[in-house]
Every structure is written in structure tokens, then in C-alpha cells.
Design goal:
Strand order of the largest sheet: 3-2-4-1-10-9-11-14
Function: Catalyzes the first step in hexosamine metabolism, converting fructose-6P into glucosamine-6P using glutamine as a nitrogen source.
CATH architecture of the largest domain: 4-Layer Sandwich
CATH class of the largest domain: Alpha Beta
Number of domains: 3
Largest sheet: 8 strands, antiparallel
Organism: Microbacterium candidum
Catalytic activity: D-fructose 6-phosphate + L-glutamine = D-glucosamine 6-phosphate + L-glutamate
Number of helices: 16
Subcellular location: Cytoplasm
InterPro entries: GATase_2_dom, GFAT, GFAT_N, GlmS/AgaS_SIS, GlmS/FrlB_SIS, Ntn_hydrolases_N, SIS_dom, SIS_dom_sf
Bound molecules: 5-amino-5-deoxy-1-O-phosphono-D-mannitol
Strand content: 15-25%
Structural class: alpha/beta
Length: 617
């Protein structure tokens, strides 16, 4: 949450900062601000509540002097509401110093009390201003040594933070630090960048450096220096960004979500790419790491939101192919109940951003207790993979819309590859069976494409008709259950409609009481070819809700005639193996959520109260 960008170099920085913020806006959009050291050596700052557009308009109406050193921030409010005053940057040292922050400084109240008792004053309700004022005090005590002051400041802070600072007496220098919040360096030619993630600078450079936990960075036009909090030099890890700026543009689509749903086939194909050789799964990142899977007695998948639902789907494949018991845990629940884990436990974390604080903390907790950790992640250089023993990247490309779509199908695909990899190591899946599953996986991109081509217009029309709906229910069984949960989450997240997902078998244990005449219910119907029994059970669930007046919208495989008499609407998906159906069945639900939000005139990319990357607990 919160997007951060910093620049030093020969160019005027305002437009670089603003376009970096535009690419980071998915991280938070309550307010935005920039601070620049201008050509006359003075610090100028402008910040406004609201989306970045408000700040842009403000700067257009009343331009601010420009300069070649600057920082910018887009906020998701934690301490203090989304007002102009609480927006970042925050100033200190007689307004010569500007600070921006992502995270939560947990001991801010105690620090603030000390600073108040020393006569310092505050203008905002934020924890960030405490860090700024503290840095101002340390700067004076360090006799104007910004590096020393910064080290002294961060050593006093508790909690999670990425901090960037500029001081007008140090043009050509941006200092930053990180603990439990993200920060990466972009290496340019005679210019350098800092960003919450590479999106901040990918239009200028794809050469990046990852900054580790509890490290400080100073960038100048000439170079980059990284140290620990005590000033000892550290060698940052270089990496090259694998996507270009165009990948993070809308590219003619009405929204990022529309673009990202259209990229679901590609997300699966790219996650498979380079990991299949002669029908066998070969995951280069896991080469030489067989020990991770030796003596495994349990897998625990930890994740939040959509990533957790992907984990619930993955559980079926991991148990079926690798024959290891799998639990799926919400990361924020995991570490507060003394879970039973040890060296025989593999923790598989799933995170698109790789920065979700709840997931990160759960991974750290598990590692400290001796468990092995593997991250499934979509973002290079992110913190969770760096804190894990191994990583399998999903190659879905940058996901900008707050609602996760293409990352979901990529996360399922990566888990299926992992399940086959572990299954082969453990001898629980034969080469022939694995090759059959691989063939199914390889066919998925084409089948998702078919759903997009044949069903999108129908689903959008349905969503349009249902624009005034107040509540939608989703039912699924087996692998369809997490898809029902995902369909409901997506709908509430972007269309603000009450939605619930249920295991269809649970219906008679309570939820059926919600069904009244006209209640829309989506039902995910498993193929009768895989289990006539499961199919029959779902069909009888449909009859039960239809008898009570529900408006039934069925997602069923092409040719499933048994559901037709009981369905008001049928959305078809191509035939696929039982475990592969979720990769297809989720697509109509993503399209529906987007269509309904559009029909209600809502911003599908930036829904209210949310941010893409939840970097606070
Ligand atoms: O970046 P992550 O995958 O760790 O994010 C986890 C959840 O916050 C995320 O999936 C969230 O639920 C999405 N906004 C759902 O669309």
C-alpha cells in the first residue's frame, strides 16, 4: 500500500515522478504528492487529497518550480484520513527536508510524545510526519550529515516502513530505507531511480537492484550506495525486469481489468513456458533443490484473498498428484495460533505482489520455526520470494487492476506444475500420467480464449440486465468451491454488491434460507464425464434453489444437457479434465464482475477503500 518513487539525474524530475506515480497508483489512491529540489536549490512540495489526477490538475493550474532531484508518493491512508494535510510528503527541518513513507511506524506515538516534549510541532495526524520530524532532529544533531541522520532515525523506528527523503542542502541525493516494505533501485545512465516496485521506473530502465531487509540506499546521478542500518556496505542483488513499459499500459483497453482478463490465456501460457521438456515438467528455479521436498509430511499454503482461493484449488492437485496432505491457511490467521510446523513442513506462499504483509509475516514466522518455504510470486525482486528458500515465478506480467484476475489462473498453473514436480520426485505420479496432465495444461490457454470469444458478449449483457441486483450467491463443489468464493470476492470488490460463495453441499445447512424469488445464484457444475455422482448432486442443488424461486445461472461444460431444464442462463466452458475446469470456470465470473461494475458506472480498476498491494497488517 502506498506507492513511492524517487529520481536523481540530469532531467527535470516532475514528469518522471508523476508518470512513476501513475504506474504505482494501483498501490493506493487516497492522495498524492511530490517534493522537488528546484534549480535554485530550494525544496518545493505539492500534495493533494484524491487521485493523482487531482494533483496533476493542481500543478497544471499553479505550476511548481522543477528540479533534477525529487520524490513522489501515492497514498493508501492508515494513520489520519485522506486529506491534503495527511498526504505525503511531510516536511521538517524548517521545510528543507521532505519525507515519504509506506508502511506503519508502530512506535510513532511514543516518538511523537518525546518530540512534542522537546517543542517540535506537527501538522498532520500521520505516523510519517513523526519520522520526518525525527529525521530533522537527527540531521541537526549529526551536523548536517544526511546519511548519518537517516541511519540514526531508522534505528529508532519499529514496524514496517519504506522511507525516502530529500534535503534541499543535498541536491542530487535521495536516501531511502526499507524494513518489511518494498523498495527497489532502477539503474539509469547518469540517473538513478527508487520505486516501490519496478513499475515506477520501467519506462526508463529495466536494470534493477533489489534492496534487502533493514538496508539503506543513497542514490546520486553517478551511483548507488547500499548499507545496513549501521552503515556497513551491502552488495545489492541485480536483476533485469522481464517486461517492458508497454505491458503495464492499458493499450487501448477501457480498463486494466479488461486488458488483464483478456490476458488470462497468455498468463497461463507464459507460466508454462520454459518449464515443459518432452512432456515432462522441468522447473529451472527448483533445480538442485530436491531437498526441499525430501521427508515432506505436510504442505501448508499461505496466502490472502484471491491468492488463497488459488491455493484452495492447488490443494486438490498437490494432494492428488504429490500425495502430501495440504492445508490452506489465510496468512493473517496462521501465525497467531501456534501452528504445528517444523522441518518436515513445506510452506508454499502465494502472492501476486510478493509484498502482502500478512503473507510475508507468516513466511518469516514459519522459517523461524524451521519450516521450508517456497514462494509462488508474480513480481520480480519482491520481498516474499527473497525471504523464501525457493521461488516459482508466475509469468502473468504486471497486474495493475486492484482485482486480481490473470494472476489467479497463473497461480493455479504454477501450483499444478509444482504438484507434478513434487509428484515425480516422490514417485506418486508416473511419467505417463504427468505427460497427460501437461497436455491438459498446454490446452488451457486456447480453451480460455474460447470462453472469452464465445461467452464475453453474453455475460456482459447479463451483467447489464443485473445492474440493479442487490445480492448474488455463488455455489460450487470440490474444485468448484474455491471458484465460487473467487466469483463472490470479485463481485463485491469491484461492484460493491453483496455476494457470497458457498460449498453447494453446505446449502441445506443454512445458506438456502437466503434464497427467495428472484435471487440470482451462479452454480458451477462439474462435468458428468468425471463424476456422475458429483454432477448429479450439483444438479439436485440447482433444483432445490430453483424450487424456491432462485434465478439460476449455470457455468457448465459444453454439451451438458442435464442442467438445461433447471437453468435460467447457461454459460459454457470447453471440456477439460476435472482438475482443469477451475481454470476455465473462473473466466465467466471475472467477466461478470467486471461487466456488472461497468454497468453500475464504477471504476473497475480502483475500487473504493482498496489498494492492490496490502503492505500493512
Ligand atoms: O499480492 P497478493 O496476491 O498477495 O494479494 C493478495 C490479496 O490481497 C489479493 O488477491 C486481493 O484479494 C485481490 N484484490 C482480489 O482481487
Amino acid at each position: 500500500m502506498c506507492g513511492i518513487v524517487g529520481y536523481v539525474g540530469p532531467r527535470q524530475s516532475q514528469s518522471i515522478l508523476l508518470s512513476g506515480l501513475a504506474r504505482l497508483e494501483y498501490r493506493g489512491y487516497d492522495s498524492a504528492g511530490i517534493a522537488v529540489i528546484d534549480g535554485d536549490g530550494a525544496l518545493d512540495m505539492r500534495k493533494r487529497a484524491g487521485k493523482l489526477g487531482v494533483l496533476r490538475e493542481d500543478l497544471k493550474g499553479a505550476p511548481m518550480p522543477d528540479g533534477t532531484t525529487g520524490i513522489g508518493h501515492t497514498r493508501w491512508a492508515t494513520h489520519g484520513g485522506p486529506t491534503d494535510l495527511n498526504a505525503h510528503p511531510h516536511l521538517a527541518d524548517d521545510d528543507k527536508l521532505a519525507v515519504i513513507h509506506n508502511g506503519i511506524i508502530e512506535n510513532f506515538a511514543a516518538l511523537k510524545a518525546d518530540l512534542l516534549s522537546e517543542g517540535y510541532e506537527f501538522r498532520s495526524e500521520t505516523d510519517t510526519e513523526v519520522a520526518a520530524v525525527l529525521l530533522g532532529r537527527e540531521y541537526r544533531e549529526a551536523g548536517g550529515d544526511l546519511g548519518a541522520a537517516f541511519r540514526a532515525t531508522v534505528r529508532q523506528l519499529e514496524g514496517a516502513f519504506t522511507l525516502l527523503a530529500v534535503h534541499q542542502d543535498h541536491p542530487g541525493l535521495v536516501v531511502g530505507a526499507r524494513r518489511n516494505s518494498p523498495l527497489v533501485i532502477g539503474l539509469g545512465d547518469g540517473e538513478n531511480f527508487l520505486g516501490s516496485d519496478v513499475a515506477a521506473f520501467v519506462e526508463h530502465t529495466r536494470n534493477a537492484l533489489a534492496i534487502g531487509q533493514d538496508e539503506i540506499v543513497a542514490i546520486t546521478p553517478e551511483g548507488v550506495e547500499v548499507t545496513d542500518f549501521d552503515g556497513n556496505p551491502v552488495q545489492p542483488e541485480p536483476f533485469e525486469v522481464t517486461w517492458d513499459a508497454a505491458a503495464a499500459e492499458k493499450g487501448g483497453w477501457p480498463s486494466f481489468m479488461a486488458k488483464e482478463v483478456s490476458e488470462e490465456p497468455e498468463a497461463v501460457a507464459n507460466t508454462l513456458r520454459g518449464r515443459i521438456q518432452d512432456g515432462a515438467v522441468v522447473i529451472p528455479e527448483l533445480e538442485g533443490l530436491d531437498d526441499l521436498f525430501a521427508g515432506l509430511s505436510r504442505i501448508v499454503i499461505i496466502a490472502c484473498g484471491t491468492a488463497a482461493y488459488a491455493g484452495q484449488v492447488g490443494k486438490y492437485a498437490l494432494e492428488q498428484w504429490a500425495r502430501v496432505p495440504v492445508d490452506v491457511e489465510l496468512a493473517h490467521e496462521f501465525r497467531y495460533r501456534e501452528p504445528v510446523i517444523g522441518p518436515d513442513t513445506l510452506i508454499v506462499s502465494i502472492s501476486q505482489s510478493g509484498e502482502t504483509m500478512d503473507t510475508l509475516m507468516a513466511v518469516k514466522y514459519a522459517r523461524e520455526r524451521g519450516a521450508k518455504t517456497l514462494s509462488i510470486c508474480n513480481t520480480q525482486g519482491a520481498t516474499i520470494p527473497r525471504e523464501s528458500d525457493a521461488v516459482v515465478y508466475t509469468h502473468a506480467g504486471p497486474e495493475v487492476a486492484v482485482a486480481s484476475t490473470k494472476a489467479f489462473v497463473a497461480q493455479i498453473t504454477a501450483q499444478y506444475l509444482l504438484a507434478l514436480h513434487i509428484g515425480r520426485i516422490r514417485g506418486t505420479v508416473s511419467a505417463v500420467e504427468a505427460a497427460e496432465h501437461v497436455r491438459e495444461l498446454e490446452a488451457i490457454p486456447g480453451k480460455i480464449q474460447r470462453v472469452l470469444e464465445t461467452e464475453q458478449a453474453h455475460i456482459e449483457q447479463l451483467a447489464h440486465w443485473m445492474a440493479d441486483t442487490r445480492s448474488v450467491l455463488f455455489l460450487g463443489r470440490n474444485v468448484g468451491y474455491p471458484i465460487a468464493l473467487e466469483g463472490a470476492l470479485k463481485l463485491k470488490e469491484i461492484s460493491y454488491i453483496h455476494a457470497e460463495g458457498f460449498a453447494a453441499g453446505e446449502l441445506k445447512h443454512g445458506p438456502i434460507a437466503l434464497v427467495e424469488p428472484g435471487q440470482p445464484v451462479f452454480v458451477l457444475v462439474p462435468s458428468p464425464r468425471h463424476s456422475a455422482l458429483l454432477h448429479a448432486k450439483v444438479v439436485s442443488n440447482i433444483q432445490e434453489i430453483q424450487a424456491r424461486g432462485a434465478r439460476v445461472i449455470v457455468v457448465a461444460e459444453e454439451g451438458d444437457a442435464a442442467v438445461l431444464p433447471f437453468a435460467d442462463e447457461v454459460l459454457h466452458i470447453p471440456l477439460a479434465g476435472a482438475l482443469f475446469e477451475p481454470l476455465l470456470a473462473v473466466v465467466p465470473l471475472h467477466i461478470f464482475a467486471m461487466g456488472l461494475a461497468n454497468a453500475r458506472g464504477l471504476d473497475v480498476d480502483q475500487p473504493r477503500n482498496l489498494a492492490k498491494s496490502v503492505t500493512v497488517e
